[in-house]
Design a protein that fits this description.
The protein has 405 residues and is of the alpha/beta class. The chain has helices spanning 20-30, 47-57, 67-80, 90-97, 115-123, 133-149, 159-166, 206-210, 219-227, 229-242, 280-288, 302-305, 319-330, 334-350, 359-369, 378-397; strands spanning 10-15, 36-43, 61-64, 85-88, 104-107, 127-130, 153-156, 181-188, 249-253, 259-265, 270-274. A seven-stranded parallel sheet has the order 4-3-2-1-5-6-7, with helices on both faces. The termini are far apart. It binds nicotinamide-adenine-dinucleotide and magnesium ion (MG).
Length: 405
């Protein structure tokens, strides 16, 4: 791996370059031109942002998952970045995740669409910087096996999991039980509805759900943060990354989002990582690992923050948290089913086709009616995902309530 300052810059592919994590990643990469060379950038449909990024970083490849967006990108780049090769479609996403000249892959596509390219990066033995938690939720056993089989380095970008990694013993790598660890605690902000009366939640709008108090994120993860399904997915993610059962993973609500998670050791010591809520911090940690590099984040002024609070999550307010833990306990394809149902329900809520309080009902319905199988192959996982989406769509058809209209 070319990370020493006097060697050639390391190649990086950024999957989901135009999203919140992708933009923060390129912000950090631009601060370290001696360390990183952008080989490929990808997006779904956002031609404007990818055009600007291609002009700035001059990658070898730019991929648009959407074919007509790829044509537009090609035209826009003709004069300003003619050497960028524009590709289209999901096979091209996988291709640029596995290119020989790529050392680092930032997996920052949202949702199940990110699974195959992230898995390809693992199978090609890359440094996999994993923001796309849905990939691990869907296929944790297969993903971790691919990391082991191909000597990939899996570095979590989720602020909580990155914090946990930072609090682990020296030279610890993900996928094994950390020595001397008794439990881990994930912190959760509680999102925009932490104090909203439960009786008012049925009427909340997508705009309110996406107005997160501390983090500026994509719309899907913002809704997940509001319902706390995000924390539920993160419990599953942590279980795979650190090889711990759900019983050893605690969640506490911490509204300031300053303490990003903590590790409790058998001697009673608890180690935590703190920092401002700025995703460039975990991104820089993973890009620089095992060294430390500048992120551009403001220094933490703990005296100005003054107080850090921690409370138990209210499971009546956040039923998705319990659904996620139950799916992980069930095992097999249950987490993939949970994830797929959640993706459909969240999109329906964002499209004003579903009330906020029906998100958890839709997921519960799908989990009850889906057929859970062993998750021993990628085909089984993808099949479970597809069937769960069908069940969720059928369920939406049975509802008449709409939101925000
Ligand atoms: P976002 O919506 O801002 O960006 C998503 C990116 O994925 C965009 O570049 C989009 O073009 C691309 N994309 C979307 N659908 C696609 C498809 N079908 N095919 C190919 N590309 C597609 O999302 P985000 O907030 O950057 O989150 C990305 C991932 O990182 C998610 O899995 C999220 O859970 C995780 N994450 C985000 C944050 C955060 O602070 N934003 C924090 C922790 C984890
Ligand atoms: Mg997180």
């Amino acid at each position: 791996m070319n990370t020493a300052p006097d060697s050639q810059p390391a190649g990086i592919t950024v999957l989901g370059a135009t999203g919140s994590i992708g933009i923060s990643t390129l912000d950090v990469v631009a601060r370290h031109p001696e360390r990183f060379r952008v080989v490929a950038l990808t997006a779904h449909t956002d031609v404007d942002t990818l055009t600007a990024q291609c002009r700035q970083f001059q990658p070898r490849y730019a991929v648009m998952a959407d074919a007509s967006a790829a044509e537009q990108l090609q035209q826009r780049l003709r004069g300003s970045a003619p050497d960028v090769q524009v590709l289209a479609g999901s096979a091209a996403l996988v291709e640029v995740a596995g290119l020989p000249g790529v050392d680092y892959v930032m997996a920052a596509i949202v949702g199940a669409a990110g699974l195959l390219p992230a898995l390809e990066a693992a199978r090609r033995g890359k440094h996999v910087l994993l923001a796309n938690k849905e990939a691990l939720v869907m296929s944790g056993a297969l993903f971790m096996q691919a990391v082991r089989d191909h000597n990939a380095v899996l570095l979590p970008i989720d602020s909580e999991h990155n914090a946990l990694l930072q609090c682990m013993p020296d030279a610890y790598t993900t996928g094994t039980v950390p020595p001397g660890v008794r439990s881990i605690t994930l912190t959760a902000s509680g999102g925009p509805f932490r104090e909203t009366p439960v009786s008012k939640l049925a009427r909340v709008t997508p705009e309110q759900a996406c107005a997160h108090p501390n983090w500026d994120m994509g719309r899907k993860i913002s809704v997940d943060s509001a319902t706390m399904m995000n924390k539920g997915l993160e419990v599953i993610e942590a279980s795979w990354l650190f090889d711990l059962s759900v019983e050893k993973i605690r969640v506490v609500v911490h509204p300031q989002s300053i303490l990003h998670s903590m590790v409790e050791y058998t001697d009673g010591s608890v180690l935590a990582q703190l920092g401002n809520p700025d995703m460039r911090i975990p991104i820089s940690h993973a890009l620089g690992w095992p060294e430390r590099i500048a992120s551009g984040a403001a220094p933490l002024d703990i005296a100005a923050i003054g107080q850090l609070q921690f409370t138990e999550p209210d499971l009546e307010r956040f039923p998705c948290l319990a659904l996620a833990s139950a799916a992980m306990r069930t095992g097999g394809t249950a987490p993939a089913i949970l994830n797929a149902a959640n993706e459909v329900a969240v999109q329906a809520f964002l499209d004003r086709q579903l009330a906020y309080t029906d998100i958890h009902r839709a997921i519960d319905h799908v989990l009850e009616h889906a057929n859970v199988q062993e998750a021993g192959s990628l085909e089984a996982v993808i099949d479970a995902d597809a069937r769960a989406r069908d069940l969720a769509i059928d369920y939406l058809g049975t509802l008449s309530n709409r939101v925000g209209t």
